[in-house]
Amino acid sequence: MADFHQNGVVTTLHNLAPRPLEEIEAELTRFSQKRPMALILPCLYSELEGEAMPNILSELKQVPYLGEIVIGLDRADAVQYKRSLDFFAELPQHHRILWNDGPRLQALDAELRSLGLAPEELGKGCNVWYCVGYVLAATNAESIALHDCDIVTYTRELLARLIYPVANPFFNYEFCKGYYARVADGKINGRVCRLLVTPLIRALKKVLGDREYLDYMDSFRYALAGEFSFRRDVLTDLRIPSDWGLEIGVLSEMHRNYAHNRLCQVDIAQTYDHKHQELSLEDKTAGLSRMSIDIAKALFRKLATQGEVFTPETFRSIKATYFRIALDFVETYHNDAIMNGLTHDIHAEEQSVEMFSENIMEAGRIFLESPRITPFIPSWNRVVSAMPDVFERLQEAVEADHKEFTGA
């Protein structure tokens, strides 16, 4: 059971009592009569063959309040797209698959790219962006949730708790961020959030002084959670990062566009586990090494837009301050783990901190040398302004793929 403490400037909705799931779903079903709901599932084809996705599908089949499920499918050829249609055919809800590698969506992407309006790189950000476009084009959903497809501990209660804050018509939240304890297999997980994001934010506060944005970011209990929910009007002006800074970038966009009292975070799971990235100590282009660089750059970019001036000396101070704070956190987490009967590898934790500290400097170097580079994909408002029929064409491409391979 969680405590009820409210920390920071963003409202925290806790899991204080074992409320029956059937009761929550009954309320959501009532809400859906006036506020239709949709779910976005960005996935790789390989995840359909993994441990998590079959269970997620089994759970979603029992969800009574969703009107639409939009699946973004990456890294799939024609045979695999057909298998994906068969895989998701069990869903009783109306659903569509965006075959992102198919010729129709690739042709639309190429045209948008020629106008400078397409994602610069492939990945989750690109997948989510096209799914958001489809939701805006083809559904009447007013509340939309998004979660990952590799959650091996998934239950439909996670979705219910995630979408509830933006689905309840008596709440005023436009955006909700999920959080949870990253504990599985007898140990504490979530190294990037524990040992990079929180210590880096605290270091930035020490070096740069109090900043309202840093207080805001420090309010989130799990800033890197891949689970969000939105009201529909949020999505038209949302700029989605295409790199590993996706989650930090979305939080920064919410900070830019909305007052704090329109945002919240919610406890969505007592246990949560998914596939883990490799640390990649020797390769800065992969795994947690690449992720840590992109996340640090996302924070630096946001602060720069608020007038913060960075120099190589600033980044050296940030690195040194971060390193001391992060090592203190290693000890904190060690004690927390031991008291709860969990294992904790101090050597591996300090290896992570050492790599992250070097990557903070690398992120700073890239930031200073390439000030014009931005990973943000244009908002759909901007895309529609340049290509007024883009929603119709996106919807037609998805429907044509579906009809070609199903005959329906």
Automatic annotation (TrEMBL):
InterPro entries: Nucleotide-diphossugar_trans
Top-level taxon: Bacteria
Name of the protein in question: Cell wall biogenesis glycosyltransferase
Organism: Halioxenophilus aromaticivorans
